[in-house]
Amino acid sequence: MSELPSPKGAEIGRRIGVGLMYGLWRPRVLGAWKVPASGPLIFAVNHSHNIDGPMVIGVAPRASHFLVKKEAFVGPLGPFMEGVGQIKVDRDTTDRTAITRALGVLENGGVLGIFPEGTRGEGDFAALRAGLAYFAVRSGAPIVPVAVLGSTERRGRLIKGLPPLRSRVDVVFGDPFEAGDGSGRRTRKALDEATERIQKQLAAHLENARRLTGR
């Protein structure tokens, strides 16, 4: 069995993330009290900026292990990301190692972070992959929807895909919910139904977050 990501490493990553995110941007965090204080949990995060993952890692009340595309593990960043408990995933195959490590995090009562849309895009949860449903149904872990809403204006950006430095970035945590129907079924039909259920919940949370923040 592959070695599980380090909870201690993830906590160190969270502390680094706090300093970095508050140093470069102006995060406003809403609903953090909704995040269960213990037990397995999945953060389902929309993905429209490159900082979405680090931002959630930094401002969330619990340390988290995100599934991150292997392309991000380049140069010295690779060992650093593994050191702070993040999980490298090959999106072109069924990455059994990543799946095992992700399930291991949940089995140990940790927090798994997922971008259910896969790649960075509109960040509106429109195209969900089945991976999130699989992890939620298989582990029984509740999902907490997370909306990261940053400035989308081009002006003031140093790097494409990042909000302008010192701009406000809102991170809104939603109510935890169960993806499965309670039967524990893991059939293709059950996963499809769970994906549909998740999509509705995430879309509703995003709409609510936009209303709350005026974004």
Structure description:
The chain has 215 residues and is of the alpha/beta class. It has a single domain (7-213), classed as Glycerol-3-phosphate (1)-acyltransferase (3-Layer(aba) Sandwich), CATH 3.40.1130. The chain has six helices and seven strands, in the order αββαβαβαβαββα. A seven-stranded mixed beta sheet has the order 1-7-6-2-5-3-4, with helices on both faces. Helix 1 (7-24) packs across helix 2 and helix 5 packs across helix 6. The longest helix is centred in the last third of the chain and has 26 residues, at 188-213. The chain is globular, with a radius of gyration of 16 Å.
Characteristic key phrases:
single chain; 215 residues; alpha/beta; Glycerol-3-phosphate (1)-acyltransferase; seven-stranded mixed beta sheet; 6 helices; 7 strands; 16% strand
β-strand number? 7
Order of strands in the sheet with the most strands?
Answer: 1-7-6-2-5-3-4
Secondary-structure element order, N to C: HEEHEHEHEHEEH
Q: What is CATH's topology name?
A: Glycerol-3-phosphate (1)-acyltransferase
Query: N- to C-terminal separation?
Result: 44 Å
Largest sheet: 7 strands, mixed
